[in-house]
Protein 1
Amino acid sequence: VTDVGGKTSHTAIVARSLDIPAVVGARSASQLIRQDDWIIIDGDAGVVLVSPSPIILAEYGFKQRQAEVERERLSRLRHTPAVTLDGQKVELLSNIEMPEDAVSALGVGSVGVGLFRSEFLFMGRQGHLPDEEAQYQAYRRAVDGMNGLPVTIRTVDVGADKPLDDTRHEASHLNPALGLRAIRWCLADPAMFLTQLRAILRAAAHGQVNLLIPMLAHGSEIRQTLALIDQARQELDRRGVAYGPVRLGAMIEIPAAALCLRLFLKHFDFLSIGTNDLFQYMYAADRTNPLVSDRYDPLSPPTLRALQTIQKACADTGTPVSICGELAGRPLEAFALIVLGFTRLSAPAGGVGPVKRMILSADLSAARRGMAVLLGSSAGSVRGEIESLARKLNVAV
Ligand code: PEP
Ligand code: MG
């Protein structure tokens, strides 16, 4: 239970991936809850109950058992391919934070890792960054752990609510989410970035690796990044160290990038949309600030139209595109995404089963007409309408 944060802040993301119930952004919880209080954390409802009565405790015990039964039921879908009723195949991938998370990704039946957030290897080390060998071993563990399925390794994205705890990273700036984060930090410290690139290229000798670059906004960053990837290959050649081929992808998570897709389509093999950031920047609402993070709905006409534009541009050029923000792991939101035409979703492991069940019950051709009307709406949110559409079509959201 944390006082600060929002649904897509990294504390929530890590808790989700560790399967730990969490409530974030509870504002004054740390003052209201005392040491040794009994509490119930209802992460689904976003509720914390302090000193619950025996009746409430019993009720939550029942809910907990029901959740176990539900989980067991979903786990039976593990080996069922995710295909809609009208035959659209959807690739369901997992987001992981540590190499060991490959176990849960496979356990829920993911067909690969769509986002390995490598920054967690860099954090909490008092500034002693992992060297090439340590990183290579970690990436290789993830690749080996996925038994031949593809692993998308994202280069380090520290900054904002993922600070490195050393002076290299200036978390104290007034707007850290708009600061020297992700690729900007990497380009400012090429030696550090080259170390990571070499480690990822070496891991690619052991399985299918996709290399994903976060927070790119414009051409000069793309050119510098590509040059550094070339340089990393040359350095490995000089040392005579084995490395493998990678498919190169860019995250679309800055509005400017979403508005100059041609540039990205020209240079990259695939795109991955980071809706957590894309929407916080579109709405200028800090994803970690509980006072504003819920002010917009990811199911709003502007966000859905932005996603539709990206999907169409990728479809027109035959470029694979995935969505790796947290919304890909929520059945109702994922329903909207597949209706928009997305066929690759990367979600926290816990979201894969519920989203697969939704996909198995959905008929996209019937839903598309309804969605087209909603995209033209000027309402602040179309969540209720999408939910009604799903219910009318008996989709398991
Ligand atoms: C995103 O921004 O949607 C994303 C997947 O990256 P992160 O949550 O790590 O910023
Ligand atoms: Mg992001």
Protein 2
Amino acid sequence: MSSILSIQSITKFYGKIRALNQVTFEVPAGSVFGVLGPNGSGKTTLLGIVMDVLKASGGSYSWFGNPPSEQQRQQIGTLLETPNFYHYLSGEQNLRIAAGIKGKGESDIPRVLEIVKLTERKDSRFSTYSLGMKQRLAIASCLLGNPQVLVFDEPTNGLDPVGIAETREVIRQLAREGKTIVLASHLLDEVEKVCTHVAILQRGQLLTAGDVNEVLVNEDFIEVGAEPAQMANLQGLLAGLSGVKQVRPFEHHVQVFFGNGVMDTGELNRFCFEKGVVLNYLQLKKRSLESKFMELTEEKAKARIATAN
Ligand code: ATP
């Protein structure tokens, strides 16, 4: 897959605050790319830089393999903040004004209204729209002129569950049409549901980037326990077992993670018994993506503190 956006070592200071620190990743063509991170992690700053609303303090980026230019930016539909629509005008009239400002897309209005499912309500005043409809109209405005790349900052922020579902469906539809979409989100759930790729930011630092299925893989693990006198022996045994990636004490038990698919629980039980450890607790568990995400951010934070010391 070729790269649509290449971000190379971007750093941004606001005075003494370092909002981004040498962030590097590639956005593949046709991907729905989530920039995921908690509030204040630098997502909006990064999108602002690649859309040339903000200047980076260091590093570079390129769109479509070329240095940034006004002409390229015109090929990108952006929704960085909610546009100012006229409340007393209809959805369609507002889009006509937006098309006039952009100098393109007037003939495109019926098409974009259809994509965001506002055709039936195109003649209603903007003030009568629900929040979800307002957001969909904002997306429609980005789609004027049929850009192949779309950049959205927190597209479902502030919406109710229905509005969130509607907006996500529009994003999925655009992805099916082959658009490349870059979206910032602080919601793991959102990224998991709509994105094919993800970059995780924490305090301006890139933790990891890549295919969602690789970065946020859902992992099963086994939790086992034995008499307190046997716990140290059990941990040693499990750590030496082939296929085991990590053994981690958790409350009165130990959690066993596998590199390549979880082991059969019966087999694990037999293995421990044959080695002289009788298990009094054995359970197959699912690790939620949420906890994986938390662990990822915590582990990297600890590693950074350790390096700094
Ligand atoms: P949110 O989801 O809350 O918008 P974010 O991940 O988009 O967060 P940014 O808004 O990019 O993060 O902010 C990154 C850091 O830069 C934060 O520490 C923020 O306080 C700081 N920051 C952002 N804009 C400015 C500014 N104009 N002046 C000073 N500091 C700023």
Protein 3
Amino acid sequence: MIASREETSSPGGPPGNGGGTVTGPGAADLLRDLAGTGRDLRRGGFSRHMFTDAEMALREWFVAEASARGLSVEVDRNANLWAWWVPADVGLTERAVVTGSHLDSVPGGGAFDGPLGVVSALRAVDLLRAAGVRPRRPLGLVVFAEEEGGRFGVPCLGSRLLAGSTSRAEALALRDLDGVSLAEAAARVGLDASRIGPDPERMDRIGCFVELHVEQGRGLVDLGEPLAVASSVLANGRWGFRFTGEGNHAGATPMDSRADPLLPAAHVVLAARRVAAAGDSLRATVGKLIPRPGGTNVVASSADLWLDARGPDMQRTRRMVEEITTAAREAAEVEGCGLEVRQEAANTEVHFDAVLRDQIRDLLTSREAQARTGSRDVPLLATGAGHDAAVLAAAPGGRPVPTAMLFVRNPTGVSHSPAEHAEDDDCERGAAALALVLGRLLVEGAQPS
Ligand code: GLV
Ligand code: MN
Ligand code: MN
């Protein structure tokens, strides 16, 4: 498959210390390989949820690409995919430099959120080899499972399990909307979930982690720069609200004799906007609302909705959720409905490792890097989007993993939508920058924090 693609070279020549011809597909070519997989004809964009046919096809694609590069591939106990470049003269006890992202999507998502980081990791291997870089430690490429939480409701599930932020019991209790458990879903695709759970040995092998991601905002477009380094990630969490009322006939039930669960549900939507808008850097969204049974001429008997809440820290995020919940309880009482609220996920705020961040920025603002990536400046950008990198950075207990992120310009500034975009040249600049960073880390290692 690779041999049949047109060969491209990175802008300004190969990264790293040596020369050499860069062969193989560019980052955008690799991304185009995925364009036919998981298209959602109903919603638009892509729906690639954990263990669906589409996501399994993407996994197969990654295994084939990694194998074609001579990398050894394995699936860890939490369904994360790994590909390893361990040069013969590198000691197995050396901690690895790890890069990667995810291949799953939100429902009707864009082509870049996740896959850009994965294809850039593969492209970086090609660039490093063409540049003659000789790693002194292993390079790991990882595809984290269920980053979006699109099937089982917990975002960054694969990295959370790896890091020990989600327990085995919590994972085994997860079910999708059809009632299929995580273990059953794994078994259906031939994966063994019996060893699911925290993986401290694997965590201990990670010396540092660098994730490249499409920017999910307008920071770079407005600055006129192609690349940024991440500074921080908002705290984020998900709460499920179940309102119960009385299912009935839309025509035969007088308006004053109803217990319609969609009434308090609507109050949550409005309260989310009101409370978040009144705060500083708060976000609250109801993006999923399911009335049951869901008929046009039926007063619903129950309604499930999910609140996605984010803020500068968990305390302020929780306070916002409490305020919204109070509004929900009051509205439920007025309508004569019941309400159950449960927290489904929580990820703390993260400020990425300052030493690694500055090391990367210094490298990417060097003359050599500027020539290769077209960056004049590499700004620091905060993000409200969640990432596996943030989960590794906030891993509980043990040794914190120095973690960093690179962002690639998104001309629309839109994400979690088919409108998400990155230009081919910027994708290649991102891969070239990632290769430079990995090359430095593979040879010199991360400076101690
Ligand atoms: C993932 O992209 C999230 O921020 O929810
Ligand atoms: Mn996403
Ligand atoms: Mn993502």
